[in-house]
Amino acid sequence: MRHEADGLWLRRGVLITCMAGALLAAHPRAQVAALGQTATTIEALPAQIDRIFERWDRGGTPGCAVGVSERGSVVYTRGYGMANLEYRIQIKPETIFESGSVAKQFTSAAIALLASEGKLSRQDPVRKYVPELPDFGVPITIQHFLNHTSGLRSQWPMLSLAGRPPGLAVHTVDEILELVSQYKELNFKPGDEYLYNNTGFTLLGVIVQRVSGKSLNDFT
């Protein structure tokens, strides 16, 4: 139950962080109103920003991390509220939040860039770049991964069955590649059905690295 609670607070914390980002990224007029910029100096910003987020700046609530930049320079950073309620860990500007599936859109964009450069095709079979993927007798293409129609079994339920569920272990790409290499069958024939799938996007990240020669982080 402790870990489930931690996960719940993490998700709420991420949600609040997104809300905070949305507030600051709103229409320019809304930005001015939100920051209450009656003063024109950078020195006045901290107090104004603190007032916006004071409702989350408490010891008993999840919160958010805030960063403000002006003309390419960071002018203010601060953490508000708690990253973990059980262990009383406060959020700091350098606190790492799990971005989760936000990475999927960037992974897709990386694949699209490589395709536009002629370095791969979305119709390429995945095994061309990831030979660790077993041959299931029917090709799984990059497009199948992008569309969640590959039929490949998702990594998180499989890792949970192996006693390493998300939230209780740190997983590496190499570990997931090893897991996938042991798969015996698909959930359905590629292209026949839609089923949201994290494994495909992990492998798309591998494809980006192997085709570009850069890690997904460096490439994006």
List the uncertain runs.
1-32, 34-39
CA-based shape: elongated
User: How would a crystallographer describe the biggest sheet?
Assistant: 2 strands, antiparallel
The DSSP helix count reads 9
Radius of gyration, in Å, reads 22 Å
Helix vs. strand class: mainly alpha
Q: How much helix, percentage-wise, in residues? A: 40-55%
- The proportion of residues in beta strands is 5-15%
How are the strands of the largest sheet arranged? 1-2
Pick out its properties.
220 residues, 4 strands, 9 helices, 44% helix, mainly alpha, single chain, elongated, two-stranded antiparallel ribbon
Task: Give an account of the 3D structure.
- The protein has 220 residues and is mainly alpha-helical.
- Helix content is 44%, strand content 9%.
- It is built from nine helices and four strands.
- The protein has helices spanning 2-24, 28-35, 45-53, 102-116, 142-147, 155-161, 173-181, 198-212, 216-219; strands at 64-70, 73-80, 82-84, 89-90.
- The strands form two sheets. A two-stranded antiparallel ribbon has the order 1-2. Strands 3-4 form a two-stranded antiparallel ribbon.
- The longest helix has 23 residues, at 2-24.
